[in-house]
Amino acid sequence: MTAPRLGGKVVVLMAEGEALAKKLVAEGATVVLTGPPAEDVGALLAELEGGPGRVAYFPAGDDADALVEFVAELFG
User: Fold this and answer.
1) Which terminal Cβ of the chain has fewer Cβ within 10 Å, N or C?
2) Per-residue burial over 9-30, b = 16 or more CB atoms within 10 Å of its CB, e = otherwise
3) Which CA distances in Å does 4 have to 7, 42, 50, 51, 76?
């Protein structure tokens, strides 16, 4: 079995980037979605949890340091 092309890569996307998030997760990337809370974010997270990549959500804010800490804590 071939390893996913983007395994080990972490990508931060606005939650509106649903199509890109799906492609990246399918290629093995870890995708952190961010943006204002929206009803459809939960459905997208549930859909993407099947991997091979990983996915998480960080609520949008002006604190870039908090986003970096979140990514580091979850994914190293």
Assistant:
1) N
2) ebbbbebebbeebbebbbbbbb
3) 5, 25, 14, 10, 19
pLDDT at 70: 92
Domain ranges of the chain: 10-75
CB 19 within 8 A of CB 43: no
- 12-31 pLDDT, tens digit per residue, is 998 888 899 999 999 999 99
CB 53 within 8 A of CB 73: no
Looking at residue 63, its amino acid is D
Sheet bearing 10-14, strands edge to edge: 10-14, 30-35, 54-59
Taking the model in full, what pTM does it have?
0.83
Give the C-alpha separation, 71 to 76, whole Å.
7
